[in-house]
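[recover] target loaded
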């Protein structure tokens, strides 16, 4: 009798441990650009999601603050095509009108170019990884991942 109870107990304990350890980040609240320390830039960009997908042209909004938090939205007014945000050790990204979204804690995933752009613009480079950043002119730039074919080219209005 003891042997038949033990596997059930072990399995139950294992499931409790796994479920307790699977906490992901909460959805971030909307960024408040009127708060002190935010810098908002607007411009236009052309995004090619991968080598086998067509280019999409749209408006780009990038807001960064002194804490390193940021908010990016690429849209074809009135529709958001891509929205990425990092704040207080959490991140989230959405494509379309919430059709596809991911969120989590810690460093944002390197596979999304939208998370690479704020740091690349700040440092004019991306340390390591598959992404390449080039400053084309004073207010324009190109971000690309040669492995996936994803590119993001754009500029901000002065």
């Amino acid at each position: 009798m003891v042997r038949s109870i033990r596997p059930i107990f072990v399995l139950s304990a294992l499931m409790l441990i796994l479920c307790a350890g699977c906490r992901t980040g909460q959805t971030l609240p909307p960024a408040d650009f009127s708060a002190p320390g935010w810098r908002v830039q607007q411009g236009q960009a052309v995004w090619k999601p991968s080598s086998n997908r067509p280019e999409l042209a749209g408006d780009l909004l990038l807001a960064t603050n002194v804490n390193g938090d940021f908010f990016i939205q690429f849209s074809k007014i009135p529709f958001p095509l891509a929205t990425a945000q990092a704040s207080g050790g959490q991140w989230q990204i959405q494509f379309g009108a919430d059709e596809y979204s991911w969120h989590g804690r810690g460093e944002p995933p390197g596979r999304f170019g939208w998370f690479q752009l704020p740091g690349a613009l700040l440092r004019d480079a991306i340390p390591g990884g598959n992404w390449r950043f080039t400053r084309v002119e004073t207010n324009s730039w190109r971000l690309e991942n040669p492995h996936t074919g994803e590119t993001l080219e754009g500029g901000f209005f002065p």
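[recover] notes: Residues 2-20 form the longest helix (19 residues).
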